[in-house]
Amino acid sequence: MTHAPRTPYDALVLAGDGSRRLGGADKPAVTVGARTLLDRALAACADAATTTVVGPRRATYRPVTWAREEPPGGGPLAALDAGLRHARHGTVLLLSADVPFLGPETVRELLDVRTGDEGTVLYDGREQPLLAAYRTEPLRRELALLRTEYGALSGLPVRLLLTGLTLRRSEVSPSGAPLDCDTWDDIATARARIREHGRVLDEWMTAVKAELGIELDVDTAPLLDLARDAAHGVTRPAAPLTAFLVGYAAAQAGGAPQDVAEATRRAAALARRWAAENTENTENGEDPQGGGPSGSGGRDGTAER
């Protein structure tokens, strides 16, 4: 489904290191489905006008701007303040880098900051201020007021941010509902979840595209139908090889989604023609494997004894 272009927004991803509940492991660098938690957060906001990650520099699948709170480890409000200095647009999407299943539908809902509101915060039984979209200027105002009141932002609880803002709650709970990964049990649950039937194929395709640097949104249903037809109508190894050749042909044609669709259509028609010949041979009493009439035996057409 296509959606109207969003008003430009800035994305801020909080990616501190040294999680105590993970035994000091660098949580944003932990992988779920062979992709780091940080990369999964960056994929959720891939269409942001700017993306700033607050935390130590790490390898990421796409370019980002890096910032660091003062002092390092000063907490979420200090990190938010550091990232907000790079914001250039009227809306800021704030994400924590430990939510592997933040889907595009949830992001769209958060970014729908309505008239009279100063932001939209995710609500899953409690407000999640680190999974929210804020209007930029009210957010700067509240951080400045907190700094004035407390002398510094370091160490302050993030819930203080909510008291001065007029926010709408988003109770969106899609199939890819956010799941905080705070412990190794949470990580194990997330890793098992991506392998569930109905999710594993999309997760794998997304991981492959990220690994290969492919930014292409393709309808996989025709490709799967083609692979099935090639496997059943030709031979099983034909399925992956045909898919490879379709991709190669689409790349030569320009690599756009319509190029993939056209190459898939032509290969699927070929597979149907191939399968039709096998059906005709069988109906005519011939061996579809090329051994002559179905009642014959040896390769020379003589009956076996």
TrEMBL record:
Ranges where the record places region Disordered: 273-305
GO terms for MF: nucleotidyltransferase activity
InterPro entries: DUF6457, MobA-like_NTP_Trfase, Nucleotide-diphossugar_trans
Biased composition (Low complexity): 273-282
UniProt-listed Gene3D superfamilies: Spore Coat Polysaccharide Biosynthesis Protein SpsA, Chain A (3.90.550.10)
Residue ranges occupied by any MobA-like NTP transferase domain in the UniProt entry: 11-149
Keywords, ordered alphabetically: Transferase
Every DUF6457 domain range: 197-278
Protein known as: NTP transferase domain-containing protein
Annotated organism of origin: Streptomyces boncukensis
